Amino acid sequence: MAYVGNGLKFEQQHGKSRVRVTRVWKKDGRHFIVEWNVNISLFSDCLPAYVAGDNSDIVATDTMKNTVYAKAKECAEVISVENFAIELGKHFTSYYPQVISAVITIVEKPWERVHVDGQPHEHGFKLGSEKHTTEVTVKKSGALLVTSGIEGLALLKTTKSGFEGFIRDRYTVLPETKERVLATEVNALWSYKYESLSSVPLEPLQFNERYLDVKKLLVRTFFGPPKEGVYSPSVQSTLYVVATTVINRFPDISSIQLKMPNIHFLPVNLPNKSNPSIVEFDDDVYTPTDEPHGTIQATLSRVQSKM
Ligand SMILES: O=c1[nH]c(=O)c2[nH]c(=O)[nH]c2[nH]1
């Protein structure tokens, strides 16, 4: 909330960062685990704390931390990271008259059930790679914005990628190519808007299913069919195809942001005077790099009709 006076505007929020919590559920001998790193930020009416040293309207950040553990304990059933964030946001905005809105962001550590002798283990997990994230904003009115995300999904293909026809000027040395390695580490965020808490899907794992569906579609669109693949004329083009495919498949997703860095694999050519081709590049030997890298990002949103 912004306070304006004497030609000045004052905006504030306070919260707790990096509250780490693990919750284990045990059902008929099978165990389930989540590990979450939670950030809470509250927009609240507590101006006297700033201007008069009066803390009577302050929700202590220590209380926020304890609330994370209390709410984790209250979750009798396995729930998605989005639903947990919604529960926290609901609590802060409905319990405290001072709190106008709450922003909860959570990153889930990718613990995956292990398979031993081809069978899912009842209580054994290993760490995967890409992470499921969420950011939930809950307003006092009950309106909420839920964003789900994938962080650090590393993808690479060894062909069906090129880059041609770009601007050439006196600083350009990059040759045009129809054949290169295409590698990226996708960070994706997609949003659902709900008018009220009652319109949030009731099924506790629906957001998890959707997360897996979006990831599957993203991967399939990036690579194309298993045998033929699909040609990518640029990271930009592939990003756009991925974004439109996701938006067209899921009508309740209102926008998607994709960050797809272009991680370069440089052709190796090693000539010297006596031997012009110690290594002559034939789409086979590369120097992998992680910096510098191209940064390509875009957001595709549905335009609200003014009807
Ligand atoms: O797919 C690409 N997009 C670019 O914008 C770019 N720029 C560059 O040097 N290589 C590439 N590749």
Automatic annotation (TrEMBL):
Pathway: Purine metabolism; urate degradation; (S)-allantoin from urate: step 1/3. It is an enzyme of class 1 (oxidoreductase). It is found in: Peroxisome. 5-hydroxyisourate binds at residues 61-62, 163, 180, 235-236, 262. Urate binds at residues 61-62, 163, 180, 235-236, 262. One of its GO terms (cellular component) is peroxisome. PROSITE patterns: URICASE. GO terms for biological process: purine nucleobase catabolic process; urate catabolic process. Its EC number is 1.7.3.3. The active site is at 16 (charge relay system), 61 (charge relay system), 264 (charge relay system). O2 binds at residues 61, 262. It catalyses: urate + O2 + H2O = 5-hydroxyisourate + H2O2. Catalyzes the oxidation of uric acid to 5-hydroxyisourate, which is further processed to form (S)-allantoin. Belongs to the uricase family. This is Uricase. It comes from Protea cynaroides.
